[in-house]
Amino acid sequence: MFADRLKQARKAKKYSQAEISRILGVTQQAVGKWETGRSTPDPQTVARLAEILDTTADVLLGLQQNPEDAPAVGRNAFSRYTECLIPVVGTVRAGYGALAFEEDYGKEYASVKDPQNYFYLVVKGDSMEPRISDGDLALVHRQSTLENGDLGVLVYGTDGEGTLKKYIQRGNSVILHPINPATKNWSSRARNWITCILPARSWKRRPSGDPAPDTCIVTKSLSYNLDFQTGSHTLLPAARLSDKHLRRAVFFVLFFRENSAMELGEKLEILADSAKYDVACTSSGVDRPGQRGSLGSCAAAGICHAFTPDGRCVSLLKVLYSNACAYDCRYCVNRRSNDRPRATFTPRELAGLTIGFYRRNYIEGLFLSSAVLGTPDRTMELMIEALRILREEYHFNGYIHAKTIPGADPLLVERIGLLADRLSVNIELPSENSLLRLAPDKKKSAILRPMGQIAVKSAESRRQLAVYKRAPAFAPAGQSTQMIIGATPESDRHILDLTEALYKKYALKRVFFSAYLPVVEDERLPALSTRPPLLREHRLYQADWLLRYYHFSARELLSEAEPNFDPYLDPKCTWALRHPEFFPVEVNTAAREELLRVPGIGPKSALRIVQARRMQRLGMAELKRIGVVLKRAQYFITCGGRLPARGTRAEIAGALLDPKAFAVGVQQLSLDDFVARPLHCAAPAVQELADHGVAARQAAQMVRQEALTCLTRRM
Q1: Cis peptide before 533, with omega less than 30 degrees from 0?
Q2: Which residues form the catalytic set?
Q3: Domains and CATH numbers, the chain
Q4: Which of 35, 160, 203, 521 could be bridged to 7 by S-S, CB 3.0 to 4.6 A?
Q5: What pTM does this model have?
């Protein structure tokens, strides 16, 4: 019997009852009762015992007679289980009511041996609180036995009513026991209950380093009929079970998608790491624990920084709701075919985590995104519920930036826009062809439709707020998007044209560019050894700035003849060299739009020039005090009709070259160890020479001299 096998396995591993109780977090008396047969642990505890005693649940339960035939517990024990998508087929009441199988809620991930026998049900009701919440997903199986005391989805009566309860059999009666003390038990002596009872299974936490996110240990048993009229048990081979029987079955609950077994800290670590590839804000990347005599601490898990319009730096919790994605985008680290740890918050976990960080003054806001958890609608519903708890229950008035899932229902987009301050819909790939090739699950229309909806709703909200002071604000901080640079062959001109169109059509606040970081191997993507195109990303951000604040157009900056930015010159200097007829500009009379075209003069400097020249004529000294970068500007302006400086072509070229393109970093390990290495944003030519053994400083000098020579010839 189980008691004897448990005792034998414990002694074989030389554990005492006290040691087992400490590991499991139970009393020693409980372990003693198990070994004397006075009580039996639940399936989850059996799985945990099997792991501790280096055996299997089948062996402990007597379902496998020869322990030598049992697979070893560890990395190889779970190789037969695969991470796959399981359909969400309907709903079940955590109360009493109907069981609906005809609905289609999409698919969710699970690690199972026979996925064809599994399905998810969405839990409705609160009778199983706090263990099982409304909206959780229950993973259920269709075969073998349900032990007395197990959780199950029970279909009862002639009308096929279903409920999620703890299954307790007492004689010829069945008690459906809720966890919530506010809900009453329900018992039945129904004559015509014929029930297919499912296998006792339990989820087992994966060993450290195992690639499978979750694993179950399977116990084997026969299915049987329960005749509650006589109280007899009649064995029935599992092969004789039909769909008709399954419609009137007890389904054993294996696992909830919002799994509370995983520690909240583990979820945060996994999901914050997965969120770092979204570039809407930058991560701190610092782990600094609290020390005696110091105040506060710093954690790298998702603490990011953003800047408000008035210049304040605020910290944001940057995290995914889930990284268990149903899509298989080839460039994404969270794609379903990529082997990595998976985790999912519950709405209440995420809300509580945010409030806890906020109360400790770690953060001032939340940056929330998510992988596609089954379906876009399902993902959005969960994100909305988390934000609703924050806003309505915790009365959180801090900043919230939420990512909208492409393909979600417009009603859900409207709902999340009323809860978040800023919304984002990521385009990710710059062309429809690239989207079809690398992200076949996504559609261009599904991305652009919510963008248009957000733009329209934001405009309507602003008009309503102008009339009604207390009108609800829809995404008051606007919307943004992100594009991946370097994963596909599109030119800078194509990307910039798209950026300009997005600003004009959808009134975006920002377009973020993300240099492609090779994290997954695929024949359709750059090799893993490819460096991220950080300098190209930098040039696109400079061009984006010119579009938004300098009144440039995309067609002015790039042409069909030159579709890509110069790696050694910033876009504004490149335009100035291509249009010598525009210069010089008289600073004392030129319009603000003309001043903005001059290298070295920015929006603030141009405004100050316009204001200052009302009082006096401006010269070089005044321009320097205003903040003009005279090193560049002096070759493109006049002050009172006089050219401030006359330089040779080589001197002008040297002043215009971007020093960041030739930058090298210094790593000083000791007084005797001095090593200079190229920065990540250095020009590709510098990196290439460094890879071939040329010293970093020498490589930078060589490339700069060549660029200077070429630029001088062009002028």
Answers
A1: no
A2: 127, 165
A3: 2-69 (1.10.260.40), 85-256 (2.10.109.10), 270-288+298-526 (3.20.20.70), 571-646 (1.10.150), 660-714 (no CATH)
A4: 35
A5: 0.63
